[in-house]
Amino acid sequence: MTSKIKVVVVDDSALVRSLLTEIINKQPDMICVGSASDPLAAREVIRERNPDVITLDVEMPKMDGLEFLSRLMRLRPTPVVMVSTLTEQGAETTLRALELGAVDFVAKPRIGVAAGLQQLADDIVEKIRIAARAHVRRLAPPAPASAPLATATASSAPAVAPAPPGSAAPRLSTEKVICIGASTGGTEAIKEILVELPPDAPAVVITQHMPPGFTASFAARLDSLCRIRVAEARDGERILPGHAYVAPGGRQFSIARSGANYVAVVDDSPPVNRHKPSVEVLFRSCAQVLGPNAIGVMLTGMGADGAAAMKEMRDAGAFNIAQDEASCVVFGMPKMAIQAGAVHEVLPLRQIARVIMERLAVAGVRHRI
Q: How does pLDDT run across 16-35, given as a tens digit for each residue?
């Protein structure tokens, strides 16, 4: 018999702790083994109970939730599902938590918390199950104070070396489009790829499973770190080189052709594979509109969303990459794409941007000197 997933709930609200405990204990495959009202108390509970997963509030007394998460991931890496309020500030804090190593998050309502959490019960327990299977890594010590985060992150990316004087430098094809799909663990994986792209990179279209209210902050954060421009996709706008377009949470995102241009299509069509936005929707449009001009990238995430459409992309002439199991937080979506026969190369996350650039340089046109 498989042992139950042991969960510790950390939240300063007694009501939230009670509700989460009830939701967890109703599941046949998990049990709440302890709870705490603040991080200091949580340390003792975690030490005694040795949980498989921790649910962690962001705003708590005695120690900020992010500070606690940072210390936890440096000293005792454990899968964490953050509980965040659905506000702009909450979104920014949640993205920072994902950067620090949280597996996923639940956006709790600011009002009607009891009813709201009950409505989210299925989502909460599913994220706990995913977190229990996730690969979490020890967080590296913080960078020296003299190195700002954005500068340190961007500078860690290998720049595209300029061509020696008198030589012909490869120019990236403006017809190519990089198409990325991701879910659990994807925010950091996407960042790692995008910070390595040069300012004149081909357009990038992205579907990351994320609820409304969070994708604008996600895009703004990427824009502050990358040499390309990053923003939420807007219906009808042109898809341009040097730009990345993130599917808005709660909307479907695809691309279409308008004359000689690619344009974004953002609409309120139904969920696909239970997701809105769905990777399947974006990748199917890439297969139909881009054909061999697409480079598909399937990153970490649970489930099979996008696998069938990625096979359509390959059949239409696209070159497709999947993130390998060792570097994934959850090896679900890449695994299903591989099994579908959709993938040409399976690569560690740190190699994906380099291979994309090499592929684009081969496809590009050289400047004439």
A: 999 999 999 999 999 999 99
